[in-house]
Amino acid sequence: MSQSTFTILLGGELSPTERLRRAIGGSRFIAADGGMRHAMALGVIPELWVGDFDSTPPELEGDFLDVPKLPYPAAKAATDGEIAVSEAVARGARRLILAGALAGERSDHALQHLLSAVGLAEEGFDVLLTSGKEEAVPLLAGTIELDLPKGSLFSVSGFSELKGLSIENARYQLADFQLPFGSSRTISNVAEGKVRFSLKSGRAIVLARPYDLSGV
């Protein structure tokens, strides 16, 4: 087990795909409120359960009576997910997997997870957001690589103007490109395998769909 990798179980949709199971293998787990329902599907026991528990059905509580709970009032200054991340960091997390972060009934929560991930990356944390079928990683100044199946779709969404953006090993490559804030130029690209992203300045998220091979 990795002592510094934590999977945060969030309330959005989650498909227990093979990529997801590989990503969370050996990690520690913290559940945020109704995200605990994913623990049963994944066959894991979190070490902590946090939140105001307003989205937790009574039968779910009965299934995890031995998991320590850290309750918060509904009127609080942070989301259950942010509280769970803070608890993981306090326990030594350096890599964070936000499972159930990208889909669900609350698009405001999904957007906040993306923004929070960029903020965490700026603090030096390694962050992956996943729904099982879709993945996202922050892109800041520097270089990252994503190992994606050939023909799978990905997009780069800028949270600011992006300067010096390069994308290699993709159908639509870029070299030292300046992307205006709000531009759709980098939406719906196709991986040729492991894709390399470089950025000189700016903040962005790479969203990938490794099981969507419509680009083949």
From TrEMBL:
UniProt entry keywords in alphabetical sequence: ATP-binding, Kinase, Nucleotide-binding, Transferase
SUPFAM superfamilies per UniProt: Thiamin pyrophosphokinase, catalytic domain
Single GO MF annotation: thiamine diphosphokinase activity
EC number annotated for this UniProt entry: 2.7.6.2
NCBIfam families to which the protein is assigned, alphabetical: thi_PPkinase
Protein name per the record: Thiamine diphosphokinase
Coiled coil: none
Broad EC category: transferase
Ranges where the Thiamin pyrophosphokinase thiamin-binding domain occurs: 142-205
A Pfam family hit: TPK_catalytic
Protein origin, superkingdom: Bacteria
Nucleotide-binding is among the record's keywords: yes
